[in-house]
Amino acid sequence: MASTAAELARRKAREEDGTGSRANTIPFNQQDFEQLRSECLQTGSMFCDPTFPANWDSLGYNQLGRYSSKTIGVEWKRPTELCSAPQFIVDGAKRTDICQGALGDCWLLAAMASLTLDPQILSRVVPPGQSFTSQYAGIFHFQLWQYGEWVDVVVDDRLPTRDGKLLFVHSAEGGEFWSALLEKAYAKVNSSYEALSGGSSIEGFEDFTGGIAESYDLKEAPPFLFNIMRKALKLGSLLGCSIDISSSYETEAITSQKLVKGHAYSITAAAQVHHSSSPVELLRIRNPWGQVEWTGAWSDNSREWDDVQPEEKKKLDHCAEDGEFWMSYNDFLRQFSHLDICNLTPDALTRNKVGHWNYVEFEGVWRVGSTAGGCRNYPATFSSNPQFFIRLHDVDDDPHDDEDGCTVLIGLMQRDGRRERHFGRDLNTIGFAIYQFKGRSNVHLGPDVLLRTVAVARSPTFINLREVCGRFKLPPGEYVVVPSTFEPHHKGSFILRVFTEKEAHSSPMEEEVDADILEPDVDSDVDPHFRRLFVQISGNDSEVSAFELQQILDRVVAQRSDVKTDGFSLETCRSIVSLLDMDGSAKLGLVEFHTLWTKIQRYLEIFRSHDSDSSGSMSSHEMRAALAEAGFQVNSSVIHQIINRFADASFAIDFDCFIGCLIRLELLFKMFRTLDKRNQGKIEVDLQQWLCLAIN
């Protein structure tokens, strides 16, 4: 219950003041950089980070664990202990500031190298004004995007070394430390250095920008990729490309036409020129070294430029000695192996652009027993998955394939995979399906709709990566995205991000919490037979207490073979009495008991109709539909709490728990409506009222 309250408080803060946005970052581990640095400067001490200490736990848990041969002789030292005049950044960040050490995180280093190509993005990740001279107190900070939120990460500058040299990333000259400290911040948010081993540079791209990344194998380039690239550049996206290597010996090997293998290039422009009256598609590519340029067709001094009109040449600034060069699109496909496009959110763009992506992101959870439904191969549970609504209004301007439609990028990312490695947990195998649907967006679609509808699009595959992403061209209309794990009953948290070229409406497919409770039509003139029965069971006082009610209900359900029960709990019986006791006697009189009896008969029929396998108990995945039939409209968050409270270890709900749930819900709705005198959907209670209500 405490964790639920904390999560609700976090979401409320995010909605009210934008906590977690780029403009209002969250202090990671609740550590405020300015406050901590000020305290150290006042006391004359050097900062030592208690949340990421200079010990074995911060290095790793297996290959870099306490007893590993790879960590023998490791010492943590500050830059001031490694050289006489350490620098944070010298003359701007450069590719040579990033040299790999004894850690398999080249994917991260490639993403760090991409930062050196864009000073504006670099300054957001690496806040300026940090140094080893002015206000130096052994503390630095960096800003990273983590699963939908921007966090400000504080680190001390104690770095792992061996024999007086940095163990992990370092600068070529050895005296520049921004890259080593950024690597440490990234290790901190992922729990250890070892957690950074292995990955894709796309992950780093996204965590440095908050964008959504696409990856293309250029040997299987889709049609119209050049147009996709040109449009992406207009939308402010970052484009990177590289040439595969067959072994580590080829790293940064230079080809005969002066391209560098295993090296991150950026693409800075796409244009079409007329060469001898024929159009040619060109790309402008930059080598972050600032030198070593392509010498093939359309390079700076190639003959192809002789047949281009002077005004076109001037417009393209085709010849500049800065590591930037032009190449034909066809040569690009032949020479390069991979293309990554990182599409940025509007708040990441500071330069004037032709346009920008519209985007929205949602948090979601796959919970065992309630929302972990698996893929469509599992029809009994598939519709339990979280669902998200998208309404596409307008077709793209200047479509890349000359066909009208709405471009949509959808990324499904699961959270905290690297942090979970320490506990031996693997990533889930994830994917999503897209269905066209016309109707209300504030409903959760059941199997009667989803299983009768064919998906109009789906993720490229179900895969156990941090993120699966797809680009789709859809006609205007209304759609439902269903993200899932491949198999049901796998828990996990995720974020779903939707990027569209034109403005689109998106929202979770969730019901508004409400209740339309059908009250039994019970006349005060009770049937004589039922009256005689009540006199027999109520005793001399002609009232039924919670203790007596427990005995009566247990006796009745024990005679039925079509329902399973462990017996009604005293808590449930007390809730029943609280709900139906009209005179405050804490007991049920004749009419009140008759109302209960009628209510239980109706709930029994609902229970039996949703016990699909006639097992005598109900699957937790059938609970949403059963509650709806009983008049309760609840969303996934409420369903989760219900399953936690009323399901057994195998996520089955027997009859007594089903009755207990419905009675409890009815009691809560009635209490809320009694206090919500203005019918505003919110109430205000003092501490005493809250305690009395919660204990009831």
Report on this structure:
By secondary structure, the protein is α+β, with helices and mostly antiparallel strands. The chain folds into four domains: 21-209, no CATH class; 212-348, Cysteine proteinases (Cathepsin B, Chain A); 380-510, Sandwich (Jelly Rolls), CATH 2.60.120.380; 528-695, Recoverin, domain 1 (Orthogonal Bundle), CATH 1.10.238.10. The longest helix is centred in the C-terminal third of the chain and has 21 residues, at 590-610. The two termini are 16 Å apart. The model has no long low-confidence stretch (mean pLDDT 87).
Task: Describe how the helices and strands are arranged.
Layout: H1 2-17, E1 26-27, H2 33-43, H3 56-59, E2 75-77, H4 79-82, H5 106-115, H6 119-125, E3 139-146, E4 149-156, E5 159-162, E6 165-166, H7 178-189, H8 201-209, E7 212-217, H9 225-234, E8 238-242, E9 265-275, E10 278-286, H10 310-316, E11 324-328, H11 329-335, E12 338-343, E13 358-366, E14 388-392, E15 406-414, H12 417-420, E16 430-436, H13 447-450, E17 457-458, E18 467-474, E19 477-485, E20 492-500, E21 504-508, E22 514-515, H14 528-538, H15 546-558, H16 570-580, H17 590-610, E23 618-619, H18 623-629, E24 632-633, H19 636-646, E25 652-653, H20 655-675, H21 687-695
Structural class: alpha+beta
Mean pLDDT: 87
Unreliable sequence segments: none
Strand order of the largest sheet: 7-12-8-9-10-11
Overall 3D shape? elongated
Number of helices: 21
Structural domain tally? 4
Distance between the termini: 16 Å
Main sheet: strands, sense, barrel: 6 strands, antiparallel
Strand content: 15-25%
Q: How helical, in percent, are the residues? A: 25-40%
| Radius of gyration (Å) | 32 Å
Please report the total strand number as a whole number.
25
